[in-house]
Amino acid sequence: QGQLVESGGGLVQAGGSLRLSCAASGYTFTHYAMAWFRQVPGKEQEFVAFILGNSGMTNYADSVTGRFTVSRDNAKNAIYLQMNSLTPEDTAVYYCAARARGGFGLYTLTTAYDYWGQGTQVTVST
């Protein structure tokens, strides 16, 4: 059974940066694509960023393109989300997710993922 543990959340001022980490265990890391989602109270989880397993190809939500960068370290079984130029609208709980399905099909849908972390809170103040 796969396990994902996020870290790196916190409070930051608008315009600042944070780097989130997600440590994976319990499955063959390179065989799984990974993603970041976020959620604010009362709303559904929102896709943020996606990265394939071996190739490392990525894709992003329009709202974060140019500000956020997703990366992975297959030797450490970890992915990262570098978040720059943060705004209060980025305030949310951020979750990492993993799926065995390859390619980019349905990658923005939460139902396409097999494993989820517990989330880490990111708060951006004005």
Q: What does this protein structure show overall?
A:
The protein has strands at 3-7, 10-13, 18-25, 33-39, 46-51, 58-60, 68-73, 78-83, 92-99, 115-116, 120-125. Strands 2, 4, 5, 6, 9, 10 and 11 form a seven-stranded mixed sheet that branches. A four-stranded antiparallel sheet has the order 1-3-8-7, with no helix packed on it. The chain is globular and about 40 Å long. Helices cover 0% and strands 48% of the residues. β7 (68-73) and β8 form a beta hairpin. With 126 residues, it is mainly beta.
Spell out the blueprint of helices and strands.
Blueprint: E1 3-7, E2 10-13, E3 18-25, E4 33-39, E5 46-51, E6 58-60, E7 68-73, E8 78-83, E9 92-99, E10 115-116, E11 120-125
Parallel strand pairs: 2-11
Antiparallel strand pairs: 1-3, 3-8, 4-5, 4-9, 5-6, 7-8, 9-10, 9-11
The fraction of residues assigned to DSSP E strands is over 45%
Query: What overall form do the CA principal axes indicate?
Result: globular
| Structure summary, number of beta strands | 11
Biggest sheet descriptor? 7 strands, mixed
Instruction: Tell me the series of helices and strands, N- to C-terminal.
Output: EEEEEEEEEEE
Helical residue percent band: under 10%
- Alpha-carbon Rg, integer: 13 Å
Helix count, per DSSP? 0
- Any low-confidence stretches, pLDDT <50, length ≥5? none
Cα end-to-end separation = 40 Å
Mean pLDDT: 96
